[in-house]
Amino acid sequence: MSHPWSSSTAGELFAAVVAEHVRRTEQRVPAALSDEPDGVHRLRTAVRRLRTVLTVYRPVFGKREADALRDRLTVLGDLLGEVRDLEVRIADVDAVGAGARVSVEARRHLVDDLTRRHDAAHRRLVEWLNGPEMADLTAALVRWVADPPRGPKADDPARKVARRRLDKAVAKALRTAEDVDLERLSTASGDELEDLSAAAHRLRKAGRRVSHAARAVTRKPTRALGGTARELGAAGQRVQSTLGDHRDAFQLAAHVTAVADAVADDGGDRGPYDRLARAAARRGAEHLDTAREAVERLREVASGR
């Protein structure tokens, strides 16, 4: 059975893709404003998915127009990311700390500071969402839904463009993977650790692009591809999530170590904090093991096309 978009142009398909992503983004703003559980995370994900569509499928829209809208979304994404990263760190302090039998007092010391920072970041987010910047972004999104700009690939067959652009995102992810020694990352230090961490971060973002680009064209109501495209998306998502979990653990260990230094300077006991930092580092190493498997799975699916 043919896909509903089998006879459509890329302009028609991706106009529908953008409209669907804009709808989901707008739906998630109220929960982020009120700081409901996962509200910020869900809005951040929606913004990221729209940004990915504008990046991977940019020739359908035109470079200048797509880049301009993506830049607007990046500002919002950065604000959401600050809040979300603190949410994750607070949850990780409790989860990792409890598993490492870190005292409640030490965990509370960490969580109280992180919570103050989270609340301040959320206030900045609310101010932005209620301000002129969000009004301008909303107006731009409305214009895109009503009359999306047309780029050089807009009149090409929808499925052909979707497949080729997704393949290009996968190829970029695999090239990025060649620059990352994930096994070495678990034992590196100093400048080498910084360089490898930056490379792993690029690979994580490349995996996310594959995941989001595939999702945009393999799920209703804009499903134009299936089969292998869904497998590529799942593999990309696994690369993203495992490296994201590693990054969270790595950053938690660095943060807790800095707190331990400050506690020791004030004459306090740094022992509980060092124990939590070591537990976070072990968790990060475990995530690297699964990340290597995720990269191999992406290679396997791509090579079987």
From TrEMBL:
One Pfam entry name: CHAD
Coiled-coil ranges (or none): none
Residue span(s) of domain CHAD: 7-300
PANTHER family membership: CHAD DOMAIN-CONTAINING PROTEIN, SLR1444 PROTEIN
Name of this protein: CHAD domain-containing protein
Organism: Isoptericola halotolerans
